[in-house]
Structures are given as C-alpha cells and as structure tokens.
From TrEMBL:
PANTHER family: GLUTAMINE TRANSPORT SYSTEM PERMEASE PROTEIN GLNP (PTHR30614:SF20), MEMBRANE COMPONENT OF AMINO ACID ABC TRANSPORTER (PTHR30614). Its main location: membrane. The keyword Transmembrane applies. It holds the Pfam family BPD_transp_1. It is found in: Cell inner membrane; Cell membrane. Part of the binding-protein-dependent transport system for glutamine; probably responsible for the translocation of the substrate across the membrane. The gene is glnM. One of its GO terms (molecular function) is transmembrane transporter activity. The chain crosses the membrane at residues 12-29, 115-141, 153-176, 285-304. This is Putative glutamine transport system permease protein GlnP. It comes from Vibrio aerogenes CECT 7868.
Amino acid sequence: MQSKTSRWIGHFIYAVIMVMLVGSVYLSGKNINYNWHWERLWPYVVNTEMQDIRAHGDGVATLTDGGQITIEFDNGDTDQVVRKYDQLIVGDGDLVFEGDTIAQLHDWKFGPIALGLWMTIKISFISLFFAVILGLVFGLMRVAKNQVARDLSLTYVELIRGTPLLVQIFIVYFFIGTVLDLDRFTAGVVALSIFTGAYVAEIIRAGIQSVATGQMEAARSLGMTYPQAMSYVILPQALKKTLPPLAGQFINLIKDSSLVSVISITDLTKAGREVVAGSFAPFEVWFTVAALYLLVTGTLSWAIQVLEKRLSASD
C-alpha cells in the first residue's frame, strides 16, 4: 500500500515539475515581449482553407444548367472542364486569363510540416532497413576467422565512426552522387545507411562476443555448420542482448536524418525553417518540430521495448 502511495506521490511531483517547466517557457516568452500565435501554425500542418481552381489559359467561361464550368481557350487547346466546386467565382460568358480563379473548392491537404514529417519517417526507416543489413554483414565479418574480412570490416567501422555524418553526406551527394547520378533522396539514404551501419556492426559484434564460446562449440559438435550455428544458436541470443543499444542507435538515426536538409531534402527540419520564414512564429514552429521528432522516436522506443519483453518472456 505504501509503495502504491509513493508511486502516486512521485507522479504528482513529476506533473508539478512539468507544469513549472511549461510555465517557465511561457513566461520567458513574455519577458522578451514575444506574442504566441499557435493559430498561425495549423495551416502549415493541415490546410483546410478553400482551394482556388484556376484557369489553365486565356478564354471564355461557359456555365451549363448543371453547374459545370467550361473554359474555351482562345488558342484552340482542349477545353478545361470543372465539375466539382463549392463556390463559383466567374459568370457565364466572362473573359478569363491564365491563372485567374474561376471557382473554389473546400478541401484539405497536408501542409509542409506534415509532408516534412512523412519525409523524415520515410528516409529514416528506409535507411534503417539497409543499415541493419550492412551492420549484420560487417558485424559477422568482424568476428570471422578470415583476416581479410576482419580487416575490411574494421576499416569500414573506424573510417565511418571517425568522420562526421555531415561530411559523409556531402561526399556521397557531391562526389559519389555525381559519378553514379544519384538523386537527393537516394544520396541521403545511402549516407545515413552507411553511417548507421557502422555503429550497428559494432553493436552486433559485441552481442556475438557476449555469447559464451561454448555455445558455438556445442552447436558444431552436434553436426551444425558454422553458418547454421551462427544463424540458429549465436545470432538469436546476440540480438536479444543487443536490442537496447540497437534501439538507441535507431533513435539516433531518426534524429541524424535532420542533416539531410543540407542537400535540399525537405524533411521535418527543413520544412520547419521554411515555415518559420513564412509564419513569423519561430518558437511555435520549433516546439512543434521537436514534439514531432519526440513522437516518432518515442513510438519506436516503445515498440522495441514491447519486442524486448516478448523475447524475454519466451526464454
């Protein structure tokens, strides 16, 4: 009973601390005469305003009895037909010019922040897939008996871990990307995969070496080949032990993906910079961007914790 009471007291103290932190941020903004405008941010997440339907060229607008708008172009191009709209702007027989608003449609579309979040998730998880493959291959090479394989894997790991990710992104995009004609997205995936793969390789190597050597000897004595023993005996145990550090590395990958904005990939960070320039609400934008990063990394951390508990229960 006492432990339950102590737990609730702890939750209450935590809530008080968080409220104080939020309040201090708000008061800090007031002290520098900053006016909060959260309402400016929503259209950059999901835009629910009326969308303009514009004329594709110069011509004459014609309205049918059913409400259909037809633009007959002066240059003889195929007529522009608009059947779905909510508010009519032009009248029957009006002259219209290219770019004129002829009607409006009440629709919604994702704003730059939502699109940037999707780009961050996409590039992170694609890079994560290839990083795991690279890490597994080079991690196995690190513990192989072949000296060439060990030297190659050691060179890869030390070279990648010893240079900044930002420099690697520039090298991949401006040098390798130019030689192989890679687009920005592919170059970003390659750079993130190679960078994270080096750290995953070391984590997997440590996991394999943490398994008792007698496990391999016992598997070989039962007639298993080295690949079979590694696949069915060593790696399953190693992966269970490496889940916490792997989770941390995967979370770092999501945060590191913000650096791809330097090669003009519109991820969440780059979208945030663009929205700040258009909304003049820097604090609101960057707090929102930080919260979205926290949402993605927190979800991934929770998923790995669930997986870790299930694997522990199966022992």
